[in-house]
Amino acid sequence: MPRFSVIVPSHGVAGRLSRALDSVLTQSFGDVELIAVCDGPGCPAADVVSRYTGRDRRVVPVHAPPSEGTAGARNAGLRSATGDWVLFLDGDDELAPGALAALDGRLRETGEADVVYCGHERVPWWTGEPTEPAAPLLARAPDGAFPPERAPWLTGVGLPAWSAAYRRAFLTEQELAFPGGHFTDVGFGGLAALAAGRMAVLRRVVVRHRVRRQGSRLNRPGPHHTELLDQVELVLTRAAEQRLPGHRHGPLFRELFAAVLKTAAHPRRLPDGRRAFFRRAGVLYRRHRPAGFRVPGGSPGVQHRLLAVGAYGAFRVLRAANRAVGGVLARVPRPRGLRTRLRYRRRLRRPLDRDLVVYCAYWGRGYLCNPAAIHAKARELAPHLRSVFLVEAEQAATLPDGVEHAVIGSRAYWDVLARAAYLVNNANFADAVVKRPGSVHLSTQHGTPLKKMGADQATYPVVAAATGSFARLLARVDRWDYNVTSNRHSTEMWESAYPAAHETLEYGYPRNDVYYTATAEDVARVRRELGVPEGKKALLYAPTHRDHASGFEPGLDLAALCEEIGDEYVVLLRAHYFYDRGDRGASGRIIDVTGHLSSEDVCLAADALITDYSSIMFDYANLDRPIVVYADDWDVYQEVRGVYFDLMWEPPGRVARTPGELAALLRDGSYADEEARALRAAFRERFCQFDDGRAAERVVRRVLLGEPPEALPPVVPLAERVPAPAPAATTLTRS
Fold first, then answer.
1. Which residues contact 332 (CB under 8 A, 6 or more apart)?
2. Contact of 565 with 631, CB cutoff 8 Å
3. In the chain, what is the straight-line distance between the N-terminal and C-terminal CA atoms, in Å?
4. Residue 431: what pLDDT?
5. Given pLDDT bands bounded at 50, 70 and 90, which one contains residue 729?
């Protein structure tokens, strides 16, 4: 019995079918059954398939009459499948390289699940840049296998059938098959999600969906659009039979009727029968609307209300009005909601507020990083300025006292963005934010680049797919007036990664000031807050994100490491900020500090750093404390992600390739010996070039107060800097 059965319908794609079949058969994971479904013997696709069956026993030809459509072809493939897991692949799409190996690995991690939703790329037919539509949905999902209640937005109806893997026994037990007619993915996806007991996600790209030049057949005009309502009714009826709870019923209802309203409002899709379509949709809406359902805001909400009362005439008027202002709104920034867009546009006509500064860090994750350090220094040096920090709603309570904030997406958010003279971010503001003449955008970055960034990622497929549109990325970069760097290496790499006309400020990273200004009392306080036992050495373990991984992978057996190195140590585990949700099961001598907002605090508390390729090493080097690089997969990382220099030749300290080597370095104290200090000194010379404790002051004086460069405090030479004291409870060398 094979691990996977991949079902490939082939109607109308004989000329592109070979690429799809090759993408399956050349996978590094070979325990697969390829079921190629053709119209019948002698058809063009059958001839293509016959060439494969002669040389690869894994190819299984199956026939299904074209009159049964995609649903019939897939169901025929399902009846022939023998694999543990079933995947679907359109005949003109491709499995991404390594997809089955990644999926197999993910299944072994998550354990039992019925459905695993996977990432996919939409690849334009021309030489364009791929997008990854499912990424926002998958990014929010829990790690591991989980019940559907924990991710109610994963309704199944908005994802194509080929963007998931299904346990075959689950499909058989639930008697699940593709419903006939058009829009069969909506019906099948919804039914599968309703029947699933446990789900999981794989956040990497599994399928490359090649968008046809002529577009999807489903989007062409014709009466087949009425069949969308058949699929909607099928799914909602099943939900009613199951008495689906409201927190799941609402998202399902909203997603289904988003598709319905999109069709109803599209004048070309239904040349005839639009009134009948609207009338039937209204009946379904009223019959299946969940109790307490809240309609969305803006124009979509108006459409919901008109559908609920069957007001087709008013709906037509609204549709015509939307088309009439379409040309105008195309030039208006695109915050969500019609009223918000128009309000933002009006605010853009008002004069800039020369005393208003807007800050944001890590897309609203809180009061963090360089923006927070600049904000704090501005309150000291420029108290006349009004400072507003942008945060996600759930982070508002974490802000320090006295910090004015606006919740991302709110009216206040768009109001301050429209009128602020200064905008400060360590990432980028939303695409819809307008760069007004006279405003100043300051990019602070949030790390020194070891891995390839920005436009330099384009030749690395895995990370390029996750990045999205490089044209849009560079359009955001074009808004920058200043970009802060902490060393000359960064200056050069950012010029390559973000080619634009902004000015580089070689002032150091403001967030790193604390590494020279913190006192022994500050260090002791942070250790108490983090729960570091008195008298213990704290090893900070901070691995970076792997673009080819589906979730957080610690890379080390920390419990085993603790046993190897003795009870004088505790480990502070800090995962990449992508994974700052949930408990990683830390206990005893392993303290999970991922949720602690300030990485600077965590570094101050640590006696030594263990990392792989995380940029935290460049910041931690300012403390002049031992650093160990644990590089068990360096070859894979540099191949997949791309790097700017060979860390193995220029490390900040000792390098370990295996857990045993790492444990030995810690046991015998060589992680902090003379050779380690010499490596760290050379590393600090190159990468701590401008960090001296006064970076925030330089930024505030130059950017916010307009002082000339020659009036700014000069960078203190490295030899004259005094880092914050190491934890007083221990020394860093063994007696």
1. 341, 342, 344, 345
2. no
3. 59
4. 87
5. very low
Query: What is the token pair recorded at 567?
Result: 């009870």
User: 465: how many CB neighbours lie within 10 A of its CB?
Assistant: 23
Contacts of 611 (CB under 8 A, 6+ apart): 540, 541, 542, 543, 544, 617, 620, 627, 628, 629, 630
Three-state secondary-structure class, residue 570 = strand
CA angle 729, 734, 735 (to 5 degrees): 105
Q: What mean pLDDT is predicted for residues 402-415?
A: 92
Beta pairing class for 440-443 and 627-630: unpaired
**Calpha distance 675→671 (Å, rounded):** 9
In this structure, what token pair is assigned to residue 228?
């969308």
Please tell me the distance from the alpha carbon of residue 703 to that of residue 440, in angstroms, as a whole number. 8
Phi then psi for 664, rounded to 5 degrees? -65, -40
Q: Are 167 and 113 in contact (CB under 8 A)?
A: yes
Determine the angle formed by the axes of helices 411-419 and 338-348, rounding to 10 degrees.
Answer: 20
Q: What is the rounded (10 degree) CA torsion for 89, 95, 98, 100?
A: 0
pLDDT at 316 over 90: no
Q: Output the 3-class SS for 498-540.
A: CCCCCEEEECCCHHHHHHHHCCHHHHHHHHHHHCCCCCCEEEE
Confidence band, pLDDT 50/70/90 cuts, at residue 582: very low
Label the pairing between strands 503-506 and 537-542. unpaired
Backbone dihedral region for residue 357 (phi beyond 0: left; psi -120 to 50: alpha; all else: beta): beta
Amino acid code (one letter) for 429: F
Contacts of 429 (CB under 8 A, 6+ apart): 360, 417, 423, 441, 476, 479
Residues 6+ apart with CB under 8 A from 136: none
And the tokens for 109? 């991690």
pLDDT confidence of 233, banded at 50, 70, 90? very high
| pLDDT tens for each residue of 452-478 | 998 888 777 777 776 677 778 888 888
Amino acid at 159: L
CA angle 445-450-451, nearest 5°? 90
CA 316 to chain centre: 38
**Cβ within 8 Å of residue 123, ≥6 positions away:** 130, 208, 209, 210, 211
pLDDT digits (tens, 9 = 90+) for 143-183: 899 999 999 999 999 899 999 999 999 999 999 999 999 99
C-alpha dihedral (407, 410, 411, 412), degrees to nearest 10: 0
For residue 661, the number of C-alpha atoms closer than 13 Å in the C-beta half-sphere is 11
Q: Which residues have C-beta within 8 Å of that of residue 482, sequence separation ≥ 6?
A: 440, 441, 442, 443, 502, 503, 504, 505, 703
Question: Distance between CA atoms of 685 and 438, rounded to whole angstroms?
Answer: 38
The pLDDT score that the predictor gives to residue 221 is 78
Q: How many CB atoms are closer than 10 A to CB 251?
A: 18
Structure tokens at 201: 């996600």
CA-CA distance, 563 to 277, in Å (whole number)?
68
User: Cβ distance 538 to 606 under 8 Å?
Assistant: yes
Strand ranges for 81-179 from DSSP E: 85-88, 94-95, 115-123, 164-167
Distance between CA atoms of residues 139 and 206, nearest Å: 15
- Of 217, 252, 230, whose CA–CA distance to 92 is shortest? 217
40 versus 537: which is more confidently predicted?
A: 537
Q: Determine the distance from the C-alpha atom of residue 335 to the mean position of all C-alpha atoms in its chain, rounded to a whole number.
A: 20
Residue with tokens 């090649």: 210
